[in-house]
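Quick one:
INPUT:
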């Protein structure tokens, strides 16, 4: 049989025809894959916070897991022990913190209402005629008692909302530690699966993994621990100076200290100004000095020791990733935002290196 000289051309024409069975099969396969990926995304979306915290805890707890595995040679049992240990470290302090937060928020609201309704606050400004006159004019324009009641109701509403959402938080917490167990026990298989399905080479995946690990370490040690130390120091200062709700304000200052550009000065600065208006110059100076020392000691001395050069990102980008992550993803965005930024940076660097 003699083949037609145009056979090759006919085959190329059939391949170029978008209605050919080959192109229809490819388009169907690609569409089904994209649809399945989107549906998987929708299914996984409610679990993003739990998965994020589980990954962060798994990265931090891996050295402990490896040490236990070297001792006992039982990955499942060691993962269970590590998960239970982390549960005690995280859950018990968090439960006490929520209890204290709700209690001091409620007590602080009651104290504000009592001071405004009794007029006791006016005595603090009676020795300053100009300030007292300004306060009197402000009181004529605003019903401070009504403002105090609205503030009290708002704080009570926030407290009740926290308590109502505690059920959902408990579910998220259970899922976090449930996933953490499997991430610790099956970490090698999970990493192998990621490498197998990833378009990146083994070396590129290793770089990506190390950068993400450094980002998680730096975020936790350089943000959470540093912010917690600042909150404890400044909350203790509030307690020592006799300022109201020291635990509440210490927690607020710790949260503000998570943002690299903002800081706890947004709380202790106005508090120092209030002490000056009260005439408590000694307390105001002490608060300013201790606030500055907290920033100098913790931010300039402790943060570099804990973080080092692991977070290879500019401070402004870190700020945007943390705050933007919290806006988009909620509390888990504190960790997820920097992770997304780091993965994107590594992918861009890989793409640039491949083009060179």
């Amino acid at each position: 049989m003699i083949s037609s000289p145009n056979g090759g051309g006919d085959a190329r024409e059939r391949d170029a025809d978008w209605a050919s069975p080959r192109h229809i099969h490819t388009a169907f396969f690609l569409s089904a894959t994209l649809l399945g990926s989107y549906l998987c995304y929708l299914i996984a979306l409610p679990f993003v916070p739990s998965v994020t915290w589980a990954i962060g805890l798994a990265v931090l707890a891996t050295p402990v897991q490896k040490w236990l595995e070297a001792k006992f040679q039982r990955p499942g049992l060691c993962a269970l022990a590590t998960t239970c240990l982390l549960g005690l470290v995280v859950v018990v302090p968090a439960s006490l913190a929520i209890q204290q937060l709700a209690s001091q928020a409620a007590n602080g609201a009651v104290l504000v209402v009592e001071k405004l309704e009794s007029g006791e606050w006016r005595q603090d400004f009676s020795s300053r005629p100009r300030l007292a006159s300004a306060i009197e004019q402000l009181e004529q324009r605003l019903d401070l008692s009504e403002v105090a009641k609205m503030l009290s109701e708002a704080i009570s509403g926030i407290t009740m909302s926290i308590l109502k959402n505690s059920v959902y938080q408990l579910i998220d917490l259970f899922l976090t530690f449930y996933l953490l167990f499997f991430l610790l026990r099956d970490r090698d298989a999970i990493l192998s699966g990621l490498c197998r399905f990833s378009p990146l080479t083994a070396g590129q995946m290793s770089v990506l993994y190390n950068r993400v690990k450094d980002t998680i370490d730096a975020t936790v040690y350089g943000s959470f621990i540093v912010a917690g130390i600042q909150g404890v120091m400044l909350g203790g200062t509030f307690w020592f100076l006799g300022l109201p709700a020291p635990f509440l304000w210490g927690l607020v200052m710790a949260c503000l200290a998570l943002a690299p550009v903002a800081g706890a000065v947004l709380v202790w600065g106005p508090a120092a100004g209030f002490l000056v208006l009260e005439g408590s110059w000694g307390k105001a100076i002490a608060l300013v000095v201790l606030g500055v020392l907290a920033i100098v000691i913790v931010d300039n001395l402790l943060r570099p020791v804990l973080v080092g050069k692991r977070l290879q990102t500019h401070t402004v980008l870190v700020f945007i990733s943390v705050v933007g992550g919290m806006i988009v993803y909620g509390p888990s965005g504190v960790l997820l935002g920097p992770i997304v930024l780091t993965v994107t940076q590594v992918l861009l660097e890989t793409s640039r290196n491949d083009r060179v």
